[in-house]
Design goal:
single chain, about 240 residues, three-stranded antiparallel β-sheet, about 0% helix
């Protein structure tokens, strides 16, 4: 089931970077009859929460220093910690493995459905590289050759590791990783169930820094000292030659 939609966002421009995170809430379903009176139609309704953020890069003019030849000024500078987005990287990975049946499990003859969930278990940051480790939890429903137990469910965890080349990534940077399960399928191979999944990986990486900026300026009424500064700034006035 595919979804699409449009969201009105004030001040959003085509050259901005868009970040989208989706959360699928628990679906509700009902079974109804088709035109022949048989219950063969399943109606599904699943709310989707979309968290959408647009980001732009801007240049800000800030005051870093101040000076006056006519006033005594006390400058107070403050250090502002910043977390800036450096970029993002998206890739796909194919995960394959086999789930082995236990001796008490009935033999499969047909795959009826597969449900999967993906989770990240470890994240390692290197110079220009990010290594992810995780698992895919797969639930496989299959038809058996047992007349008394015609349908069976078997579950298994499939580990995976993925390496992403990210130019500019440093060890001390912050990263945010989101992994989605794009597709999952299963086949019967001998006495095992082969599982194949396609996952998409989205990585955003940030760097931390601090900037010393002018926080406030206080002027005093004390007379100016005779000591001249090493640099004197003079604003040209009308009538000057």
């Amino acid at each position: 089931m595919y979804i699409s939609g449009e969201i009105e966002m004030e001040n959003a421009l085509p050259n901005m970077t868009v970040f989208c995170d989706y959360t699928l809430l628990g679906p509700e379903y009902s079974i109804r009859e088709d035109e022949n009176g048989e219950k063969r139609i399943i109606d599904l309704e699943a709310p989707v929460i979309a968290m959408i953020k647009v980001v732009s890069s801007e240049t800000l003019d800030v005051i870093k220093d101040a000076y006056s030849p006519n006033l005594n000024m006390e400058l107070e500078k403050e250090s502002f910690p910043l977390v800036s987005l450096l970029g993002q990287n998206t890739s796909e990975a194919i995960v394959k493995d086999n789930i082995y049946l236990e001796p008490q499990d009935p033999f499969p003859v047909q795959i009826l459905g597969v449900i999967g969930r993906v989770a990240i278990t470890d994240k390692k940051i290197f110079e220009n590289k990010l290594i992810l480790e995780g698992i895919i939890k797969g639930d496989i429903i299959y038809k058996t050759n047992d007349e008394n137990n015609s349908v069976n469910l078997i579950s298994g965890d499939i580990p995976f590791a993925s390496s992403l080349e990210i130019p500019g990534l440093k060890i001390d940077m912050l990263t945010r990783v989101r992994v989605n399960l794009e597709s999952i399928e299963s086949d019967i191979e001998a006495n095992t169930l082969a599982l194949k999944a396609v996952i998409s990986i989205n990585v955003r990486y940030y760097y931390r820094c601090s900037k010393d900026l002018l926080g406030s300026v206080k002027c005093s009424d004390e007379p100016l000292t005779n000591k001249k500064s090493s640099i004197t700034i003079y604003m040209v006035q009308p009538g000057d030659s």
